[in-house]
Design a protein that fits this description.
Elements (H helix, E strand, L loop, with lengths): L4 H12 L5 H8 L3 H13 L19 E9 L4 H13 L3 E6 L6 E7 L2 H14 L3 E8 L19
């Protein structure tokens, strides 16, 4: 899809705060509110905007702990990787899962209310996915930055 300057500005703005009204966005992008709505609808329909979500402050929901996990598998056969991917995608505690290069095969970001809950999840993962050979865990002591925004350059040349 070819994104023009207005699309790129809109994408950056809605990633900062999707709750802005079309009127508020129009004031910043120099388009009419109806043009803003049409562009956002097109960006959603074409899959540029995959979904919209709220970012919840962990302090207000029981201060969950974040775990960063390096996961290794025994064999990288496509059907075994597909099974593990489906399992990870189905777990609400798994916030992010990346298939990566390097020592680990996957890097996961997991949230849990405490280490006991995390341990139970990982025990279930190993039991239900025999291809998992080992994992390492880092516990986040504090969150410096948390987000999913993709910086969209103002033009294709940037």
């Amino acid at each position: 899809m070819n994104l023009d300057r207005f699309d790129r500005e809109l994408l950056n703005l809605v990633q900062e705060d999707v709750g802005r009204t079309a009127e508020q966005l129009a004031a910043q992008v120099a388009l009419s509110p109806s043009a803003i709505q049409r562009r956002l609808r097109r960006l959603r329909e074409q899959g540029v905007i995959e979904r919209e979500t709220a970012i919840v402050d962990p302090k207000h929901v029981g201060r969950p702990t974040f775990f960063i996990v390096g996961l290794q598998v025994e064999r990288e056969r496509p059907e075994l990787l597909a099974q593990l991917r489906r399992w990870l995608a189905a777990q609400p505690q798994v916030q992010q899962a990346f298939y990566v290069t390097g020592e680990a095969d996957f890097v996961l970001v997991i949230t849990a209310p405490d280490t006991e809950s995390y341990d139970a999840l990982m025990a279930r993962m190993v039991a239900e996915n025999p291809n998992v050979s080992r994992f390492t865990t880092n516990v986040a002591l504090s969150v410096v930055k948390r987000g999913l925004a993709i910086p969209v350059p103002s033009s294709e040349a940037d």
